[in-house]
Amino acid sequence: MTLFGRNVLSVGQNFHRARALTDKLCRCKFQNHFASNIRAASDLLGSNRVDLVPSHTYLSDGTGLGLLASLAHLPVITAFLCLPVENSCLWPPAIDGGTKCFGLPALRPLEFTRTLEEMARYLSTRTQASCPRLDDLIAVD
Questions:
Q1: Mind listing the pLDDT tens digit for each residue in 52-88?
Q2: Is pLDDT larger for residue 10 or for residue 123?
Q3: What is the pLDDT of residues 107-138, one digit of tens each?
Q4: What is the 3-state secondary structure (H, E, C) of 38-78?
Q5: CB 51 within 8 A of CB 44
């Protein structure tokens, strides 16, 4: 399988709950793809271009941090981890353009959606190189 266009790879077993997020990304001309674990994600990432990877923190065959290791050699990837909290989740940025970016503030679901919409706007009309860095998109107080 070869993926064309702007691609999102969501990694985790419960992304069906993120229907609003995937619908927004589709409207922004992203193609959504899903993998339930690190092995399936690594197989897909090994032979296809993916621009964005939101991942659950805990996966059936390891953690999202293990997945980040397989993203380290891909310079265009932006990745977020999902940390479940009571009745919601937080989305800490993990990789920005292939560079680890731990330390940026975690995003609440609405902030995360807005940040992804902004990224999608840039990526749908320009190249990844012109997409602003995450710390420019995320308001740091």
A1: 888 888 888 888 888 888 787 776 788 898 888 887 8
A2: 10
A3: 998 888 888 878 877 776 665 556 677 877 77
A4: HHHHHHHHHHCCCCEEEEECEECCEEHHHHHHHHCCCCCCE
A5: no
Domain 6-137, classified CATH 3.90.1150.10, yes or no: no
Instruction: Give the tokens for residue 113.
Output: 């959606």
Q: How far is Cα 71 from Cα 41, in angstroms, rounded to an integer?
A: 10
Per-residue tokens: 59: 């996966």
Q: Is 94 left (phi over 0), alpha (psi -120 to 50) or beta?
A: alpha
Q: What is the pTM of this model?
A: 0.81
| Cα(21)–Cα(17) distance, integer angstroms | 9
Q: Which two tokens stand for residue 80?
A: 């977020």
Distance (Å, whole) CA 66 – CA 58: 10
Q: Which two tokens stand for residue 55?
A: 């991942």
Q: Where are the alpha helices (DSSP H) in 90-130?
A: 109-125
